[in-house]
Amino acid sequence: MTDYVLSDATRAKFKTISTASIATALFKRGLRNQFIQGVVPVAPKAETMVGQAFTLRYIPAREDRNPITVFQNPNHPQRVAIETCPQGQVLVMDARKDARAATAGSILITRLALRGAAGVVSDGGFRDAEGIGALDMPAYYAKPSAPTNLTLHEALDINVPISCGDVAVFPGDVLVGDRDGVMVIPAHLADEIADECTNMESYEDFVLEQVKAGQTIIGLYPCTKDEHQQRFQAWRRENGR
Fold first, then answer.
1. What are phi and psi of 58, to 5 degrees?
2. Residue 104 main-chain phi, psi, to 5 deg
3. What are residue 163's DSSP bridge partners?
4. Which residues contact 135 (CB under 8 A, 6 or more apart)?
5. Are 74 and 209 in contact (CB under 8 A)?
6. d(C-alpha 177, C-alpha 142), whole Å
7. pLDDT by residue (tens digit) across 165-224?
8. What DSSP character marks residue 4?
9. Distances (CA, A) of 99 to 18, 68, 151, 153, 155
10. How far is it, in rounded angstroms, from Cα 84 to Cα 197?
11. Are 38 and 97 in contact (CB under 8 A)?
12. Is 114 buried (19+), middle (13-18) or exposed (0-12) by CB count in 10 A?
């Protein structure tokens, strides 16, 4: 869907940027619906999740198509997605926000992590969530769910445009996840959003210092007074920001 390749430099910038800053930068460009709704970290991680999207689409299961024996098929899309998600990318699953059945469990997600994926996001459930949470790789889901995916979901399409938590996700989009949740950044905007938000994060760190010191936010946040801009530039020089 895109020729864009996330560079190491841009990935490193996003590692230091909050989803809140990204949401504001996208809002300035008219993009209001890029935060995946209803997903949370399986377990909080110290490091921010960053990677391009590799997608898996589930449709509602139909009983005659989804007996337990379908897992004997080596081309089953769920298994193929786990085995083909590229290193450094994020597997994003469209479960139609239905967490009554799992979209994967700890064995598959462990395999995904060991293959070098940057993370996994599902707007459905995960089974064996405790095991998934113990992995170093970031994982996001709606909630724990013990029933097998076959109960309600049929894995159908790999690396096609999907919906995840009411957000359109195209293969190659950049996902950034922190403790607040996950933002989806259109690939063609990724580099400029990373640059803008790096500057935004610096200013907000400066603002927080000022607020903790007793400074009023009027004229400071947002910056509408030259005196604050001058103080910020001096702060950047002093702090190497």
1. -100, 145
2. -175, 170
3. 168
4. 109, 110, 113
5. no
6. 14
7. 999 999 999 999 999 999 999 999 999 999 999 888 888 888 899 999 999 999 999 889
8. -
9. 27, 19, 11, 10, 14
10. 32
11. yes
12. exposed
For residue 200, give the nearest of 18, 67, 46, 70 by alpha carbon: 18
Q: Is-contact 183 35, C-beta < 8 A?
A: yes
Cα of 46 vs its chain's centroid, Å: 14
Which runs of consecutive H residues, i.e. helices, occur in 6-164?
A: 8-14, 19-28, 77-84, 106-114, 129-133
Alpha-carbon gap, residue 227 to 191, rounded angstroms: 30
Q: Taking a C-beta distance cutoff of 8 angstroms, is the pair 164, 173 a contact?
A: no
Residue 87 CB neighbours (<10 A): 9
pTM above 0.70, yes or no: yes
The amino acid occupying position 99 is A
Peptide bond into 222 cis (omega under 30): yes
Instruction: Give yes or no for a contact between 176 and 16, defined as CB atoms under 8 angstroms apart.
Output: no
Q: What is the largest distance, in Å, between two alpha-carbon atoms of the chain? A: 70
Task: Return the half-sphere exposure (C-beta side, CA atoms, 13 A cut-off) of residue 159.
Answer: 14
Question: pLDDT tens for residues 142-171?
Answer: 999 999 999 999 999 999 999 999 999 999
The residue among 101, 102, 81 whose CA lies nearest residue 91 is 81
Tokens of 45: 């991680």
